[in-house]
Amino acid sequence: MNFFKKQKAKGQLMQAFKSGKLHLTYKNGKTEYFIMPKIHAVIEKRSKMVYVFSIPTGLDPKEIHKKKWVFQQQFGPRVDVLQENKKFTLIVYDGAYQEAFQWSYDDIAPVVYDYKLPIICGKDKNGEWMSYDMVKHPHLLIAGETGSGKSTQVRSILTTLIKTLSPDDLHMYLADMKRSEFHLFRRVEHVEKVCTKPSELMVILQKLKREAQKRGDLLDENEVMHVDDLPRKLPYVLLCIDEVALLKKDKEIMNIVEEVSSIGRALGIFLILSMQRPDAKVLDGKLKINLTVRMGFRCADDYNSRIVGTPGSEDILASEAGRMIMKLEQLQEVQAPFLEDDKAKKVLERYKVERKEEKESIREETNKNQIFGVLDE
Questions:
Q1: Are residues 124 and 67 in the same domain?
Q2: CATH number of the domain bearing residue 303
Q3: Where is the FtsK domain (predicted)?
Q4: Which residues sit in the known binding site for ATP?
Q5: Residue 3 half-sphere exposure toward CB, CA atoms < 13 A
Q6: Which residues are registered as beta bridge partners of 236?
Q7: pLDDT above 60 (res 366)
Q8: 353: domain range?
């Protein structure tokens, strides 16, 4: 922020103090003097302006909170006032405020109808839908603390994909390392496997490696660059791993995940990775580069938000569940839709089929690999 813009911003804050009589007043004879709050910093951030000030001793801090309306009159309705003893932080948000809202496929369908692999994100600050085609922007990282909206975002993305594509066009593999999320999707026709153990995930990854090899051979034989250009249509494959950070010590698994992130786009094999706490040891090298889209919900601090690649997500308030900083072509603030468990269950029920053999087949392959100590290539 240049000097003149900063001085103008300070002047606006000083005017708010005067308008609300947020100062001490004393007289010396007939002359009246004001002791004003002291402005320590004015910081311009993406989508917001942050003012840090302290009040003079003797001024009741409650007056600042009681007169929040003064700041709203001066700067607009979207303001937050935070206090730490005598020091206050005033956050002034740009533009309109997109409130939390419910997931509704009737609203989403017109937005994603012409995408091959639609990812619904949410609404921007102007209430406009944000979405993209994963075929063009492969691989997605979703991160955020407990209660930030990360889990419901994964749920709404997967549910939207199931509603939009047929089981012949999309095969999904779901890895639920904390056993807390993907039970909803068991027996859904699109879902090939749901696993909860690293050994089961390794079986899936080996299967995807073989599938990738077959698809690569088909591209070579037909002299084309992408599976969409093959004479016979192949289904897209989506691997979604919840709490991928729990796998960081399993180098073999993470190496295959990184390999899929490198070659998957042309082969029609895509990743969605989510984690509660960003981990630099997981998000390093090629994997981080290949996760071309990032959704950063509330993070603990700027270090964590930088790991995700969504600076500003550390400033999201606990009261702003579902708010994220999204990195697609540029950083943007987005409000994700809320899809609760019970509603998701009702939506998914019509897509469920009997599939008793699924769990047994995974267990058999897992045991086979453990007995021989080697995985098929």
A1: no
A2: 3.40.50.300
A3: 127-306
A4: 144-151
A5: 0
A6: 170
A7: no
A8: 105-370
